Structures are given as C-alpha cells and as structure tokens.
C-alpha cells in the first residue's frame, strides 16, 4: 500500500478543503409576482413557471 512520505501541514490541508464550504442558495425572481424562488422551480406563491400557469395555488 502507498504511504504518505511526509505529513501534510494544516494550511495545505485547509487549502485543499477550501471549496468544501457551504455556499448560499442562488435565488431567482418570479416573473409574475416578483417573489424569490429557486431557479428552474415552479413559484410556490403564484404557481407559474417561465410565465406560464402550471399549478393552481389555493
């Protein structure tokens, strides 16, 4: 089995893991009601997707 030749420093390990951090959700704006929604999802407020009525919201 392969073994590491030298111990990795904390900074080198941290640099490798720098991209693992949680990123905030990218929100889009509904074209009809201007509320914040997840991209490529139906708006839960008005029920539209890309300007077309998809579902009836009670």
UniProtKB/TrEMBL annotation:
<feature type="compositionally biased region" description="Basic residues">
    <location>
        <begin position="7"/>
        <end position="22"/>
    </location>
</feature>
<dbReference type="Pfam" id="PF01783">
    <property type="entry name" value="Ribosomal_L32p"/>
</dbReference>
<keyword id="KW-0687">Ribonucleoprotein</keyword>
<protein>
    <recommendedName>
        <fullName>Large ribosomal subunit protein bL32</fullName>
    </recommendedName>
</protein>
<dbReference type="GO" id="GO:0006412">
    <property type="term" value="P:translation"/>
</dbReference>
<keyword id="KW-0689">Ribosomal protein</keyword>
<comment type="similarity">
    <text>Belongs to the bacterial ribosomal protein bL32 family.</text>
</comment>
<feature type="region of interest" description="Disordered">
    <location>
        <begin position="1"/>
        <end position="22"/>
    </location>
</feature>
<dbReference type="InterPro" id="IPR002677">
    <property type="entry name" value="Ribosomal_bL32"/>
</dbReference>
<dbReference type="InterPro" id="IPR011332">
    <property type="entry name" value="Ribosomal_zn-bd"/>
</dbReference>
<dbReference type="InterPro" id="IPR044957">
    <property type="entry name" value="Ribosomal_bL32_bact"/>
</dbReference>
<dbReference type="GO" id="GO:0003735">
    <property type="term" value="F:structural constituent of ribosome"/>
</dbReference>
<dbReference type="GO" id="GO:0015934">
    <property type="term" value="C:large ribosomal subunit"/>
</dbReference>
């Amino acid at each position: 089995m392969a073994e590491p030749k030298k111990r990795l420093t904390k900074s080198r390990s941290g640099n490798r893991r720098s991209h693992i951090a949680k990123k905030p959700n990218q929100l889009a704006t509904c074209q009809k009601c201007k509320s914040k929604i997840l991209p490529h999802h139906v708006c839960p407020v008005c029920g539209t997707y890309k300007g077309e009525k998809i579902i009836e919201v009670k």
